[in-house]
Batch of 2 targets.
Target 1
Amino acid sequence: MMLKILDILKQGVRKAYDDRNREGVHVSDLVLCIRKSVLNRLDPQPLTDIDIRNFNQGLSHHHTTQQLAKEIVAESEHPTSVEVEKSVKEFGVLAHVDLVINGIPVEIKTTRSAKAAPSDHYYTQLRYYMVMLGQKLGKILVESYNAKENPWSETDVELTDDEMEMHKNNLIRDRDNFNLALEKKDWKLASHVKNDKRKVFMCMRCPYKKRCYDIDD
Ligand code: SF4
């Protein structure tokens, strides 16, 4: 009988997804829709083939990052510290930063948008990393799968002391909102993106859309 390679691929990706440690609060739980992250914990839904495809692309991105780190060290004329998937725990929040180069966090994103421009939530994610690392400089690299030209962008981000304080307060606010909804087992307490023009795209394929849109908030 012919081997079903696709089934093996899907099982492997699904196992990698299930093996992720989802204890505690992660930055990735806070940067898009906190309500969806809470519902994911309280009532996890089966992955669709599209979810598996997207997660698989994320795994490929991880391998590219590791390769990039090796190249950075090899090309550098000066001693360079490069950390891949650096684990950070600060303010009761966990993060795995794609790359940290000489202490500076670098967030690497791929997008199906035709433009390789950083989205708002990429900035939010990077700023939370910067706050957690106590680092006022950061960088976002974006690769667009569908751009006809200029498929990459590289954006430097610099925060003032006041901005660091503001983003720290935002991180703590989001953490507390996530924890409260989870502790009370009440997803309605978690903030949502139904009325946020920049994030409402999240609702399109959300498995919790019906119950979320059935309440008026
Ligand atoms: S439907 Fe939209 S607002 Fe509601 S949980 Fe899903 S992503 Fe969040």
Target 2
Amino acid sequence: MAVLQLGINLFNENGGLIAVLKFSLACGLLGLVGWTIVSPLLGAWVRAKQMYKIPCTNCRFFTNDYRLKCTMNPYAANTEAAIDCSDYMSD
Ligand code: SF4
């Protein structure tokens, strides 16, 4: 109780401290809202850059058939495992 009373007295006696705390809280909330908006966009950007590194659609062995996507590496075709595929051969 003494600590609570001390905190209440500090808040009541010092209006500047309250203003600083309000400003900090507002900045923190704005930062959280900004990060909530920016974070998924950054994640999507990084993911899209990674996906564009997959070379299969320009590869000679890519069949564009869902039953057998690639005649050389069917399990790796159109996945991140195909990014540095040693069997890649351009059309
Ligand atoms: S050979 Fe490699 S790069 Fe070509 S389609 Fe198959 S997995 Fe993709």
